[in-house]
Amino acid sequence: MPRLGQKIAIITGSGQGIGEGIARVFAREGAHVIVATRTEGSGRRVTDAIMATGGSAQLCCLDVSDDAGVANLVADTIAEHGKIDIMVHNAAQFGDAPVDAFDGDLYDRMMNTNLRAAMTLSHAVVPHMKSQGQGRLLFTSSVTGPRVAMPGLSYYAASKGGLNGFIRTAAMELAPHHITVNGVEPGFIMTAAMERLIDRTGQEKMARYIPAGKFGTPEDIGHAMLYLASDEAPYVTGQTIVVDGGSTLPETPVFFEE
Known about the structure:
It contains 8 helices and 7 strands. It is an alpha/beta fold. The chain has one domain (8-242): NAD(P)-binding Rossmann-like Domain (Rossmann fold). Helix 1 (17-28) packs across helix 8 (218-229) and helix 4 packs parallel to helix 5 (154-174). It is globular, with a radius of gyration of 18 Å. It starts with 7 loop residues before the first strand and ends in a 15-residue tail after the last strand. The mean pLDDT is 96.
């Protein structure tokens, strides 16, 4: 039996990268996936690909930083399907933000997408999950911020650290209603955005310092999310799973020197 058979799952930022990987894994395991993304072209590509392989999916174009759009996404899903079993907030804003060059507009965009949207999505979907007597709230966090640091990513790190705090607090509040709240912290995952950010030589250098010896794939994150979304994890809440090939384990790069 598929692990997510007859489940309705909203996945934000699922038009590419990690979100696409999550959507594909969930669809293979029987979920009807709402591909929620800003860009129609990429969202349509993912939706069509899922359906071409026998999965069930539909496209919803929205900007998760728009409160009205978030409310409409949830209301429309309930009106059409009668329930929402799983909500995955994966959409994220990324950008260079050195501490000594504060950019208020970039800060607002990043916080609105990465952190505030987690709260507005939860606010919209939780009443329905309470009525259903169960639900899964899942979030794509990061090792950057909660566990490690990278120069120039102060806003991003702050948003992901805040997201982990939200996960733990929401988990405590919602546990009596059989709603679990968890996240996944990806390390270096090979996506189109990563390929644009770091060239092949840079990727090879970075991979040498990952104990697994390589970057992860979007579906590596999808499989971790699958466990947390499934009926196998009803007693897991307020947690984040690190999926990083061991990159956060070494105390110093000297261990990788030949």
